[in-house]
Amino acid sequence: MRLTPLTLSSTIEKHLGEITELNLNNKEISHIEDISCCTSLRKLNLSNNKLKSDECFSGLKYVTELTYLNMSKNEMESIDGVGDLRNLTGEYKFYIHDYSFLYLNTIGTATEKILNLSNNQITRVPQGIVNCEKLKALILNNNQLKTVDNILGLSELGTLVISHNQIEALSGLVGMSGLTKLSAAHNKLRVFPNFGDNEKMKEMRLNNNKIQKVPEYIGKCINLSVLDLGNNLIAEFSSIESLRLLRHLDNLNLKGNAITEVEGYREKVLEMIPSLRILDGQRFDPKFLARKEKRAIIDEIKVREKRERDLGLKPGALKKEYMNKSQKKAKIQK
C-alpha cells in the first residue's frame, strides 16, 4: 500500500488539513508520498508496516508541524534519508531504534537531541548524520558496525553508544572534546581509544573487548569517574599504572581480567587509586557502609516486631533472641 493524500481522504472523514494525529499501525504501507497537505499533523504512527527504503523520509520532509513519528518494526536497513528531515532537527528530542523507530517530541526551549539506531543491521554510520550537527547523543549498539565514521562534525555530541558491534579500532575521536560518555563494550577493540584533551569525559564502558593496557593518554581525561574494563586481557599492574593520573576516578571494574587473580590485587589497586569508592561492582566507602548497616538494623526490627504481633507477644519480647542472632552473624562476617 502507498500512503498518499488520496488513500488518506478515502479513509478519514476530516479534512486533511485539520488532522493532528494519525494512527496507521499495521496497514502494510510500503511507500510514503508527499503528504504535506496534512498541514496540522503533529503525531504520526507508522509502526508495523513494510517500509524498507529511506526514501520514505522524503514524503514527510514538508510536514512541518510533525513532532511525533513512530516507524518502529519496519524493514529498514538504511536511514540515510534522515537528512531530509531538516525541519525536525531544531528544538526536538528524537530517537530511531528497533528497526527505525523515530520519535520526535518538542521539549520547549531545550536542545537535547538523541538519535538511537540500535538493534538494526546497520554496517556504517550514514553520511546524512552530519545534518544533525546539534546531536547530543548517538546510540548505535547491537548493529554490524566495523568502523565508526562521519561523526567528527558532531561537535556537540556528548554520548556515544556503540556496544555490541564488530569494531576493532576507534580512531578520529581526538577532536570530539564534548564527549562525556562512551560505551563501546562487547566489540573487538585491542587498543584503548584516544580522546585527546577531554575534560568533560566522565564515563567509559569498554568491557568485553581485547584491551591489554591502559595508556598514558588516559590522563588527559582528567575528570573521568567511571571506567569499566571488565573481561579484557589486562594481566599486570604495569598495564594499569596510568590510572594513577585519574584523581576523580571513583568507580573501576576490572572483573574478568587476569590481574584480579594476582595476590594483593585489591589492596594494590586501592593504594594506586585512593579516590575509588567502587571496585569490581563492590561499594565500600564508609558512608555507604554505615547507611547499609543502619538499613539492615531497621529491617531486622520490623521483622521482629511483626513476628511479636503474629505470636501475640509483648513489644520487645524477642529482642534478646534477635540481638544474639545479629551478634553471631557479625562474628561470621568478620
TrEMBL record:
The protein's matches in InterPro entries, at most eight in alphabetical order, are given as: Leu-rich_rpt, Leu-rich_rpt_typical-subtyp, LRR_dom_sf, SDS22/Internalin_LRR, U2A'_phosphoprotein32A_C
Instruction: Give every U2A'/phosphoprotein 32 family A C-terminal domain span.
Output: 262-280
- Lineage top rank: taxon: Eukaryota
Name of the protein this chain belongs to: Protein phosphatase 1 regulatory subunit 7
User: What span is annotated as the signal peptide, if there is one?
Assistant: none
UniProt keyword annotation of Repeat present: yes
- Which Pfam families did the record assign? LRR_1, LRR_9
Answer yes or no on keyword Repeat. Answer: yes
Query: Which keywords does UniProt give here?
Result: Leucine-rich repeat, Repeat
